[in-house]
Specification:
By secondary structure, this protein is of the alpha/beta class. The protein is built from 12 helices and 16 strands. It starts with a helix and ends with a helix.
Length: 431
């Protein structure tokens, strides 16, 4: 019956959330790769809209997590698994198009819209930046006198910092009807909480047609003020130290949609981390695996908008931060063939030493590396407030990141069971 349910679920082009719950109910306790694959496929499906803010993709993901937490028997803090908060966010829910000369470009594949872009449409003549703009005051003076209202200015992404060093040039640049920023290597999408610029398109430099003369474009942007999102929080009570917590975190949000038809699946970033969090929760929720310490599981919203969910949580904790014995944040858990990295490992010598000892004994990873703390995921604000907190991410292939190619079907989960083993061994042995 389990195999039949799984086969039918995985054969669906758009997996049924109800079907996934049925399959989960049939599986046994502990880490389960078929269940993990089904979770990953669901989180990255079109129905979740890239877990962003168009069509409330974040809320769909949060409801999914709430249902999983409830089905496992995790306890909420208070009467809800949700911790709501608000943010401003710039979105692209409608039409997004770009034509260079007579060639239509594909959003996500051929170009991105810079996330600070306001709405706009029309056509414009392409203008390359004049040589020596940043070094010759005569050239600068001539540029500042030009009317750019019907121009699309093309510049290198590396040169934007030179504009910010010269406020007059920067202000003039943003009087253009549109901007085209040429990226060095790849298209990397992001999220913004503000809309500050006329439509700005990002294109990889090697793909840019230097003979291009004109563009035609449309960007349907919508800045949403005070958008309500939510962290999702539950816990398993410890049998020896119920008042102290090991905390497992992962952000569930991603980049959402770019127009009506293009979405960012976010398999490695960070459906993989959420999937591992759920597998750990499934394991510890079973009576036979009840941990010594209580374990809280926090799925953060709005990480991609600037770590806003974890920042809100540390400012409004659901239990005192000084009751956190240790925090492990999971992000980018889909690779591992080249090892695993522990961010903040340089400062947490005792904890890194235990992780390293376990890894050497069990041979989970070829390399367990460490680096200093950085504001690159949701552990950061906890560490800033004195919590012992680290962030693990796996190393290796594929390296799709913040693009439309970060899909479930191409994510190997190469060391997923090994990561599960490393973490559960650590939690069991941590004093």
């Amino acid at each position: 019956m389990q195999l039949f349910a799984l086969k039918n679920l995985l054969l669906q082009k758009r997996p049924s959330i109800t079907g996934l719950f049925l399959f989960i109910a049939l599986t046994t306790a502990g880490q389960d790769m078929t269940r993990a694959r089904a979770t990953l496929k669901t989180l990255t499906s079109p129905e979740f809209h890239g877990r962003g803010y168009v069509n409330q993709g974040d809320r769909i993901a949060a409801d999914f997590l709430k249902s999983r937490f409830s089905a496992m028997g995790l306890k909420p803090f208070g009467n809800s698994y949700f911790q709501p908060f608000t943010l401003d966010v710039n979105t692209y829910p409608g039409k997004v198009s770009l034509k260079i000369n007579k060639t239509d470009l594909a959003p996500g594949k051929d170009f991105l819209v810079n996330p600070i872009s306001q709405k706009g449409k029309g056509s414009a003549r392409i203008m390359q930046l004049p040589p020596r703009l940043f070094t010759d005051t005569i050239v600068q003076s001539a540029f500042l006198k030009q009317n750019l209202s019907r121009k699309a200015i093309v510049y290198l992404s590396a040169d934007y910092g030179k504009f910010t060093d010269n406020p007059d040039l920067l202000e003039k640049l943003h009087t253009a009807k549109a901007l085209i920023e040429l990226q060095k290597e790849k298209l990397t999408a992001t999220v913004s909480t503000a809309a500050l610029s006329h439509p700005t398109f990002e294109i990889v430099r090697k793909d840019w047609d230097t003979a291009a003369q004109k563009i035609k474009f449309r960007v349907d942007a919508k800045l949403i003020k005070n958008y309500q999102t939510q962290n999702v929080v539950g816990f398993v009570e410890g049998k020896t130290h119920p008042e102290e917590f090991v905390v497992i975190t992962a952000h569930y949000d991603h980049l959402g949609q770019l127009g009506k038809d293009v979405y960012f699946p976010g398999a490695n970033d960070n459906a993989s981390g959420v999937t591992l969090l759920l597998e750990l929760a499934q394991y510890y929720a079973k009576p036979e695996n009840q941990p010594e310490y209580s374990i809280a599981f926090i799925a953060f919203a709005a990480e991609e908008a600037g770590l806003l969910g974890s920042k809100y949580y540390t400012d409004h904790p659901l239990f005192p931060l000084n009751q956190i014995h240790f925090l492990i944040n999971l992000d980018l858990m889909g690779a591992g063939d080249e090892g695993i990295m522990m961010v903040n490992g340089l400062r947490l010598e005792q904890e890194f030493g235990l992780f390293n000892k376990i890894n050497e004994e069990k041979h989970y990873f070829t390399k367990l590396q460490k680096r200093d703390n950085a504001p690159n995921s949701d552990h950061f604000f906890f560490a800033r407030k004195g919590v012992k907190a680290c962030f693990f991410y796996t190393l290796g292939n594929p390296k799709f990141y913040h693009d439309i190619y970060d899909r479930a079907e191409t994510l190997p989960l190469a060391k997923f069971p090994e990561t599960f083993g490393l973490l559960t061994d650590f939690i069991q042995q941590y004093p």
